[in-house]
Amino acid sequence: MNITVGNRLKQWRKAKNMSQEEVADFLHISQSSYARMERGKSGSWSSYVKEICELFEINSEELIKIGLRSDTNENADSNKNVVNQLSDKIIAQYEARIKELKKIIKNLIKNQKQIIQDNKKGSTNM
């Protein structure tokens, strides 16, 4: 599956007249890491589904379907396993982002309360 996805990544990159380094920069990874994805030596592309889809203007279904059709020797259970693993990675990424955003919101609320308290102290001292 990684080989087929890698081949498609290469096709999409060339269609956009981009270098491996440009794509790697967009994904915030090294050129060598991206090159391994294109050669099918790495499955880390699944961690960058959103970014890949954004860059190449495709939807995630296109990318996943490509992966599912990639190896005719894989059986249906194996394909389901790949989709489940990919889904789990995407969910984990979103959960991590939600956790980060909750911390940010908590800090903003804390800062807002502090500003309100400081303003109250300032107005009572006048």
Q: What does this entry look like structurally?
A:
The chain is an all-alpha fold and 126 residues long. The protein has one domain (2-106): 434 Repressor (Amino-terminal Domain) (Orthogonal Bundle), CATH 1.10.260. The chain is 78% helix and 0% strand. It has six helices and no strands. Residues 70-74 have low confidence and may be disordered.
Spell out the blueprint of helices and strands.
Elements: H1 2-15, H2 20-27, H3 31-39, H4 49-56, H5 60-69, H6 76-124
Helix pairs in contact: 1-3, 1-5, 2-3
Question: In a nutshell, what does this entry contain?
Answer:
With 126 residues, the chain is mainly alpha-helical.
DSSP, total strands? 0
CATH architecture: Orthogonal Bundle
CATH class: Mainly Alpha
Shape from CA axes? Answer: elongated
Task: Give the helix level as a range of percent.
Answer: over 70%
Poorly predicted runs: 70-74
Distance between the termini: 71 Å
**Could you tell me the mean pLDDT?**
83
CA gyration radius, whole angstroms = 22 Å
Number of helices: 6
* SSE string: HHHHHH
Q: How many structural units, i.e. domains? A: 1
Beta-strand proportion: under 5%
Structural class: mainly alpha
CATH topology: 434 Repressor (Amino-terminal Domain)
The CATH superfamily turns out to be: lambda repressor-like DNA-binding domains
How does the major sheet shape up?
A: none
